[in-house]
Amino acid sequence: MNTKIVRLGEGNKDEEVLLEAGEILKAGGLVAFPTETVYGLGGDALNPDSSRKIYAAKGRPSDNPLIVHIYRTEDLYKVAREVPKEALQLAEAFWPGPLTMILPKSELIPLETTGGLTTVAVRLPSHPGARRMIECAGGFVAAPSANLSGRPSPTTAKYVVEDMNGRIEMILDGGEVGIGLESTIVDLTVNPPQILRPGFITSDMLKEVLGSVENDATLFTTASGQAPRAPGMKYRHYAPKGNLVIVQGENDRVISYVNEKLQEAKGAGKKTGVIAASDTAGRYAGDVIKTIGDRRDEEVIARRLYGILREFDDENVEQIYSESFGGEDEGHGGLGQAIMNRLLKAAGHQVIRVN
Ligand code: TXA
Ligand code: MG
């Protein structure tokens, strides 16, 4: 298939492009598009064939449900069988924006879209191009992240092209995304509501609206032995091809431990890499050193993380050590939770404490 790649953000041409994307989606085709979190791979959420095509294009297991994207809050009533008052409060506080809610699904949404579940994930993105495209497509766009299954979610169109060129009808290039990590997922079908995936909308922000909210037991540890409640979180996701290990502790100790391990890996003939903050990056002796940003600037770290994991793949790095970012445990209620959750998953939960 020949994939049409078109830039967004070039003034009055946008409307024409978004209308064309809408037509492709209505006809059962697939369009990758930017959102404020990561790029999405869109198909008509009401068309079972479109959902099947999404799974095929991503190489994704079809028991992993898709998020239904809408462009106006009132459509929540069409997607969900019941809309509890908590959903309306969250919509009021955080939509449009990077929050996905799990609700009982309506008859309108086919089981192909929800991976066979009777619940549905709904999100109203804030990216203006995304919203207009959803409207042009008839109002309901199923969209997982636009990566091949198992790869980090794409934060620029370049990465979408890497994974999806030739597999889908169209890619809309809206430049680099704003947030860089996927939306927060909150399950409103349980009491108290549960966070199934942390994101830019933090648990502190959710608590302000909901009063209480819990974390899925698997967000930061595998100790419970349970499976994550968001089916997609159980796959070894976000992962670079190389082996990634997180090292926690006081800076000097982390640096000397990692440098020792880098020597060992080099001795074994492996290409090595490090993910470090700006203030310590200069002190590592690996083949590829990636500076992720100022340790205190969580928004920059969030935006850079997936790109860095992909760069390690491009450079065939085999052994990677990462400093710890965003607070070291779930006691921290900010964006750091989302960063740590993704980093832990990328590392397959391999963490070493050096003090
Ligand atoms: O920011 C985002 O949410 C991006 C952009 C494109 O909107 N989308 C995204 O979709 O991250 P995806 O498919 O890569 O991740 C959706 C996650 C998966 O882990 C999936 O298992 C979970 O949401 N999910 C979807 N429907 C669910 C449901 N009914 N119950 C529990 N988990 C669900
Ligand atoms: Mg994904």
Quick rundown:
The chain is an alpha/beta fold.
**CATH H-level homologous superfamily name of the largest domain:** DHBP synthase
Relative strand content: 15-25%
What is the domain tally?
A: 2
Number of helices: 10
CA-based shape:
globular
The profile of the biggest β sheet is:
11 strands, mixed
Q: In order across it, which strands form the biggest sheet?
A: 1-8-2-3-7-4-6-5-9-10-11
In angstroms, what is the radius of gyration? 20 Å
Main CATH class of the largest domain = Alpha Beta
What structural class is derived from the secondary structure elements?
A: alpha/beta
Distance between the termini: 54 Å
Mean pLDDT: 94
Written as H for each helix and E for each strand, in order along the chain, the element string is: EHEEHEHHEEHEHEEEHEEHEEHEHE
Unreliable runs, pLDDT <50, ≥5 residues? none
- Per DSSP E runs of 2 or more residues, the count of β-strands stands at 16
Secondary-structure arrangement, i.e. CATH architecture of the largest domain: Alpha-Beta Complex
- Helix content class: 25-40%
CATH fold call of the largest domain: DHBP synthase
Distinct small-molecule ligands in the complex: threonylcarbamoyladenylate, magnesium ion
